[in-house]
Design a protein that fits this description.
Layout lengths: L1 E5 L1 H5 L3 H16 L4 E5 L18 E2 L8 H13 L4 E4 L14 E6 L3 H4 L6 H17 L2 E4 L2 H11 L6 E3 L14 H10 L5 E6 L8 H11 L4 E6 L5 H11 L5 E4 L7 H7 L2 E4 L8 H8 L4 E4 L4 H5 L3 E4 L4 H13 L1 H14 L5 H16 L1
Parallel strand pairs: 1-2, 1-4, 2-3, 4-5, 5-6, 6-7, 8-9, 8-11, 9-10, 11-12, 12-13
Helix pairs in contact: 2-15, 7-10, 8-13
Amino acid sequence: MKIAFDAKRAFHNNTGLGNYSRFVIEALLKYFPENEYVAYSSPPRPQRENFYEKLMPFLKTPPRGAGGLWRSWLIKNDLQKDNIQIYHGLSNELPFGKMPSGIKTVVTIHDLIFERYPKLYPFFDRIIYQLKFKKACQNADAIVAVSEQTKRDIVDFYGINPDKIHVIYQDCDVAFQEKKSVEAIEIVKNKYQISRKYILSVGTIIKRKNQLTLVKAFQKLNLSNYELVLVGGKSAYQKQIEDYIQEHNLPNIKILNKVPFQDLPTIYQGSEVFVYPSVFEGFGIPIVEALHSGVPVIAATGSCLEEAGGEGALYANPLDYKDLADKILQILVNKDLQKQLIEAGQKHVQGFSAERIAGALNEIYCRLIS
């Protein structure tokens, strides 16, 4: 088969959608090398080309002067000229209008959080998302949802036939599966001035991710021999957290922005417990990163995080800091529970292997052109 991808995020986004896009393309390259692949995107910045080294041979860039219209409209001409059979939009969208004859389309929908929580998004962003996501779902020959929760949302909000939607979970970068030495962990702890045992949370610091509730839970526990470490991109919400920390004199809390990717696996593995209190997610890839890292996990009820964590996590009400504090304490004081969660987590993430995911995607592609 000749398969093409909307690879904009793969070459221009170093987190979330970028990680997913790279993971999918690299998994298919490894397990189904008999297919021919094309990754359509504007070129990455020259200083970042080494980061995308595995994908660079498959990159096809837009014609000179095509501009922003290429991805949404003009790319269809290239797909036809390149004899593409399958076009997969990896990040929630497809080109507008009818595709050329003989080209089947697949779109991955990661979440519809902007539909559930519209007030969290600027008005015009929300309108654009609604237009792109809904049209993509309506026009695609097949839809990949990254969780059962996302599948339900696609059906509920857009009225899409559930038979058209395939739930295929996602895995994280293999770097999280590589065991780090005690020395490596100490070096990274020193780098970020982490001097105690620590509870970790990783995720963009925005209101939906709910880190302030975790701060309140940590405050309630009053653990003088532990630190709470929040890692993630900064937003206006961080100021609210910082003000709370200062007002209540909570010195054992660190917020780390702009942590390079290469440090993340070590930061995970050095932690005592990983907590992900997000109110709502499409999947929750940091949970999978923590499970691969061999760390006990606490996640929030109410969306799809039980799918991501399975039996490798405890679950708390994200709106109840006392419940969150109780779950953290349960893990910290119970070595048997720690061991049980880690073992269950290692078993659970086997279901997210690159080989399984690539196989499920390849099966969809085969069905579409058979």
